[in-house]
Design goal:
The complex is a heterodimer of chains A (about 100) and B (about 170). With about 100 residues, chain A is an all-alpha fold. Chain A is built from 3 helices and no strands. Chain A has one domain: Helix Hairpins. The chains are: A mainly alpha (about 100), B mainly alpha (about 170).
Chain lengths: ~100, ~170
């Protein structure tokens, strides 16, 4: 049973990250933007886990735990903001927010 | 164990791609959940069972529930019923279900072929916990402060305007 090569693990993390980035740039729905952010954070965590497996160290998994906590806090505040924006603009379109002043 | 990594990695990429191309947010959420579960299986094959469990519990569990909760909350009124009917058409769930079945089969296979997986490159939860509450203790405190700030922020932002006026 061979180990998964470092290259393939990082490749998977890179693909997932760029997919998330693409979604962030392409989609106009605020909830989809937040979901793409989740995918990107998850890909970053995956890169840490791959590194942890490569060097047999626990530090990578510890970093993954912090990313997890950060993602949870980010999504809680982000979704509360989404709800505020929906109440104010009656739309989840990111472009609707370009009319904000100051 | 290598092939398990590649299969679940492929499932993760496919599910993420399908998520990005869905028009409907709830359908996208279904694919995102499958994608996160696939990444959890990837963690398992990489010898990080603790991270895999947390991925399922926190990401695919808690964070996705938040998303679904907000999506449902934003669809108040008459439109909700029509949308609900539209969402529940059979066939919507087939894509995520197929991908999830692939993951389940893989997981069953991995669990049956057991111990060899966890011996190569595995970092057991004990080592993670020792590192977490040893050299990284200050980071744990900072993370808890971040979560508290997130909690307070979400609580403050989550109020209705009308509620706030009523309280004032």
């Amino acid at each position: 049973m061979a180990e998964v090569p470092l290259r393939d693990g990082l490749l998977l993390a890179g693909i997932l990250f760029s997919l998330g980035l693409t979604g962030l740039l392409v989609r106009r729905n605020l909830i989809m933007v937040l979901m793409s952010l989740e995918v990107m954070l998850n890909a970053a965590g995956l890169a840490f886990i791959v590194a942890a497996a490569r060097w047999h160290q626990a530090d990578g998994q510890v970093m993954f735990l912090f990313i997890l906590a950060m993602a949870a806090a980010e999504v809680a505040v982000g979704l509360a903001l989404v709800r505020q924006i929906y109440e104010r603009f009656r739309s989840l379109d990111v472009d609707a927010l370009s009319a904000m002043k100051g | 164990m290598n092939f398990a990594f590649y299969i679940s990695g492929a499932v993760a990429v496919i599910a993420t791609l399908l998520m990005l191309t869905r028009v409907n947010v709830v359908h996208a959420l279904l694919y995102l959940i499958v994608s996160l579960l696939a990444v959890a299986v990837v963690f398992y094959t990489l010898g990080a069972p603790f991270a895999a469990a947390l991925e399922v519990i926190v990401y695919a569990g808690a964070i996705m529930v938040l998303f679904i909760f907000v999506v449902m909350m934003l669809n108040l009124g008459d439109r909700a019923a029509a949308m609900e009917r539209q969402w529940l058409t059979p066939g919507i769930w087939r894509g995520p279900a197929v991908l999830a079945v692939v993951l389940i089969l893989e997981m069953v296979y991995l669990l049956r072929s057991d111990a060899a997986i966890l011996s190569t490159g595995a970092v057991d939860p004990q080592a993670v916990a020792i590192a977490l509450f040893g050299p990284y203790l200050i980071c744990v405190e900072l993370a808890s402060m971040l979560l508290l700030a997130g909690l307070v922020g979400a609580y403050h932002l989550g109020f209705h305007k009308a509620e706030r006026r009523a309280r004032a």
